[in-house]
Please model this.
Amino acid sequence: MHTHLLEENNLSGKYERLQTEYVQFDERVDYLIKKDYTGFNITIPFKMNIIGYLAEISDNAAQIGAVNTVKIIDGRLFGFNTDGIGFIRALANKNVEIKNSSVTVLGAGGAARAVIFSLIKNGISQLTIINRSEQRALALIQDIRKLGRFSETKYVAWQQDNIKEVCQKTDILINSTSIGMWPNIEDTPIVFEDELDDFVVVDLVYNPLKTAFLKMAKNKGALCVDGLDMFIYQGVEALQIWFGQEIKFDYEKLRRMLIEKLENYGRN
Ligand SMILES: NC(=O)c1ccc[n+]([C@@H]2O[C@H](COP(=O)([O-])OP(=O)(O)OC[C@H]3O[C@@H](n4cnc5c(N)ncnc54)[C@H](OP(=O)(O)O)[C@@H]3O)[C@@H](O)[C@H]2O)c1
Model:
C-alpha cells in the first residue's frame, strides 16, 4: 500500500517490514535512528513498548496508550496513533452516523482503545465493552472515566447470551478482537439469530476481508463495514505525518489492489 501511495504522490522512499524480536527492540530503534529513517509504523506487540523511547507523544496516542506511527526528527522520536482516525474515516465513508449512537465494542486491546477514544470524541451517547479478560476491560473503563466527560460506559462479561442481549440495544457493534482472523476464518465472536435491520456491524479484522462474523451480519440485513478501509486510512494518515503533506489517492483503485493482494496474503 505504501509503495503504491508513494509512487502515486511522486514521493521517493521505501516501506519495508523489519521483523523484530523482543530482545532486539532496543537495537532496532537505534538502527532506525542511525540509518536516518523518516519514520516507522509499529505493531503488535510493541505499540506500548515504544512509548518509553519517545521525545514526545501526541495527546491522542497518550490517551489511547499505544503508538502505531513514529516520526524521526534529528534523531528524536515523535509518537502518534492513526488507528482511531482511520476507523472514523472508514465509518464516514459508509455514511454511518456516530453522534448520539449507542455502541458495543467486543475487545479491549490496543485497537479497541484507539476505536473507543475516537468514538467518544465523535459524540457517541453510550458504550458497552465486552471482553474476555475482565481486568483489561476494567482498566480501559478506568482510563475512559479519567477523561471526565463521558460516563456512559459499562462492562459486560464475555458470554454469548450477554452479547446477544446487549446487541439488541445497540446501534453499532464492533469486533475489535482478533477472532476470525486468518487462519481461524470460521471463528466468530457471536452467532446472530435475529434480523439486524438498521444495525451497523464493523469488523476490524481485514484478513480475510469477509469474515464469518461480517458474512453472517450481512445475511441478517446489517450494514457492514470491513477492516480494510480503516487499514487504508490509518496508513494514509501515517504517510501524511511522515511527509508533512496531503497524500492523494484513488480510493477505488487502492482498495481493489489491496483486495487482490489479500486474496493471497498469508495463505501460502
Ligand atoms: N483494520 C485495521 O486497520 C486494524 C488496525 C488495528 C488492529 N486491527 C485488528 O484488530 C484486531 C485486534 O488487534 P489489537 O491490536 O487490539 O490486538 P490485542 O491488543 O492483542 O487485543 C486482542 C483482543 O482480542 C481479544 N481476543 C483474542 N482472542 C480471543 C478469543 N479467542 N476470545 C475472546 N477474545 C479474544 C483479546 O481479549 P483478552 O483481553 O481477553 O485477551 C483482546 O481484547 C486484530 O485482528 C488486528 O488485526 C485492525
Notes: Residues 44, 83, 86, 107-112, 131-133, 136, 176-179, 181, 204-206, 227, 230-231, 234 surround NAP (CB under 6 Å). DSSP finds ten helices and ten strands in the chain. Residues 2-82+229-264 form a domain with the Rossmann fold fold (CATH 3.40.50.10860).
